[in-house]
Each structure stands twice: as structure tokens, then as C-alpha cells.
Design brief:
With 288 residues, the protein is of the alpha/beta class. The chain contains eight helices and 13 strands. Helix content is 33%, strand content 29%. The strands form three sheets. A seven-stranded mixed β-sheet has the order 7-6-5-8-9-10-11, covered by helices on one side.
Amino acid sequence: MRQNERNRGRMLISCPDRPGIVAAVSQFLYHCGANIVQSDQHSTDPEGGRFFMRVEFDLPNLAEQLPQIEKRFQEVADKFQMVWRMTHAGQKKRLAIFASREDHCLQELLWRWRLGELPAEIVMVVSNHPDLEPLVRPFDIPYHHVPVNKENREAAENVHLELLEGKVDTIVLARYMQIIPPRMVQRYRNQIINIHHSFLPAFVGGKPYHQAYERGVKIIGATAHYVTEELDQGPIIEQDVQRVDHRDQVEDLKRIGRDMERIVLARAVRWHLEDRILVYGNKTIVFS
């Protein structure tokens, strides 16, 4: 645990906009003895819109005090009709990474985790193929090979849920080439992050980079989003693009696309782990 995380708390708040919200939150934390170190807010419309707020604060012995502080804050939350949560930065989220055969996104996450850039506990890597187990082994992270096909989808889903239950807070799909079943989406609502191979909306179906090449695209990119029951339509967390031109062949587009996917997914995962994202409807407010 980093020294500044030991007593660092975070609050995420969403509520109808009205005067006094920031003052009420600040006064509450002040009376708790907390020191606000960062505060961000956004309103969709100061007159009748939705207000979003993220606050980081320091408070000695936060871990011991947090349950009582949350109980006391409910009175403030009720007054302003808040949807809110409070977290302790020192309690790292427990992460499961799902992957198939492509290794670039998985490698990026493992590398950043080893460097301390992803404040999480990676509990496991799950794959429908055995190919990436040698890559994961040096990190001393459990690797679970769960084959998935048309005949065993329900059985595989049961194995996944059994592996995850009580052990994982967040799931990252690092180019996992299987559709996540509705039961898992419902169980981990806004906790499953996927990386898409293009700047959504984009080419669907197989061989997206071949389609892009044939259409002579001028930009390619990647999109990280939360998973919903509707395929690739969940709230978007992060996107990025890079210009390409007529000189780039299919393999060039794939290489550039892999770089985009690695970077965009790593950003999205880090922001999620640091409680920087508020989901409202099918949109996100990202305090990056």
C-alpha cells in the first residue's frame, strides 16, 4: 500500500443539481476531521440537471472510521437525493482478467500491475485457451483454462461464476473472444470492462482490419466500455485514435490497432480502479 493511500478516502456522488451540495459535503468532511485533497464536479444543467461529484480526502485511521462515517453521511445523502459510494483507497479492488489467444492487452495489464501503475490485486487470469498460461506463470497468478463452445456454454458460465464469486470485484476482458452471458453481466453490473478493436460504432463481424483496409479508412482506434447485455453498446469509458493512410497495409493497421487497444484499456482500467467513473444511463462521467 502506498503511504498516501493508507488514510485516503474517495466519494462519488450523483444527485439532482441544486444549491448547497458542495457546501454540505465539505462541511460534513470537515466535521469528521478530514482534509479534502481533490474535488471535481460536473453539472448537466445548473437549473434542473444532474450533478456529479468526486472527492478525495485524507483522514487518520480511515479504515476503522469508515463504517461510522458512511452511516452518518446517509443523512446528508437523503437530503439531496444522492446516489453515492465511499471507498478506501488502501483497499485494492480484486481483479480477474479474461483473455483468449491474443496476448498484447494481457501483457500490458500485467506489466503495468508489476510496475505499480494498476492499484489492484490480480486474483486470476481466465482463458478459453491454454496458450497464454506460460506468459502468466512468472507473475505467480492463478491461470484457469475454461474451454467454451456451443455445447458447453452454460456449464462454462457456471464454472466462471464459481471461480469469481466472493473473490473478484472487477472483470477485464483483455481481448476475450466470447460473449459474456446475461447472468454474469447482471452479477457484475458496471464492473466488466471490455476493449473493442475500433472507434465505436465501427466495422462489425470478422476481420475488422481487412474491412478497414478495403474501405480506405483514415483513422483507426480503440474503445473501452462497460459490458451490457447488448453487444458492444455499453457505457464508453475511453477512446483513442491514430491517423493512417494509403501506405498502411492490413498488418500495419493491426499493429497500430494493438497499440491503441493496449493504451485505451489500461487507461480505462486504472480510472475504474481509482474510482474516477460515474455511470449515468448509458453514459459515463470520467474524472480523469
